[in-house]
Amino acid sequence: MSDTAGVLRVHKDELAGRYLTFRLGENTYGVELMKVIDIITIQAITSVPYVPDYVKGIINLRGKIIPVIDMRIKFSLPPVGYDDRTCIIVIEMDRIQVGMIVDTVSEVLTFDAESLTLIPEFDRYNNNKYLSSIGRVGDKLVMNLNCQKIFVEDSGQ
Questions:
Q1: Does residue 9 form part of some domain?
Q2: Is residue 1 in a domain?
Q3: pTM (2 d.p.)
Q4: What is the mean pLDDT of the segment spanning 53-64?
Q5: For the domain that residue 74 is a member of, what is the CATH number?
Q6: Does 2 reside within a domain?
Q7: What are the contacts of 84-89 at 24+ separation with CB within 8 A?
């Protein structure tokens, strides 16, 4: 094994169980820190025609074209104007980078196995497919996102 591979494995191990938290309205959400590439302030977004309404468009981030979605709209929350606390969290999944517009970034939290709970299936129509777990920190609940499922269109399953 190369030295680089060993360093990358140690780095990934250090990020396991760590989540970047952010706010949408009154709720706190988390995304696995190992998926986060960058956090940037809101910037000019170029609209793209014929995309779902939650896809706000694309940005040029250091020479890479990144699609950007508004998480409030994706989660059927009322849209709000962007302000100086609005951020774009750039994540990477399967070598594809995507930006998520959020109200504000909060903090990085570490969850051990005891503080994570699987998502209950409330009924056959609402199975919370966008959530992977719920983390508990004291009295605070953090809804941890399953990024793979957020960025895949509903397939009727």
A1: no
A2: no
A3: 0.81
A4: 94
A5: 2.40.50.180
A6: no
A7: 84/41, 86/41, 86/42, 87/22, 87/39, 87/40, 87/41, 87/42, 88/39, 88/40, 88/41, 88/42, 88/43, 88/59, 89/20, 89/22, 89/31, 89/36, 89/38, 89/39
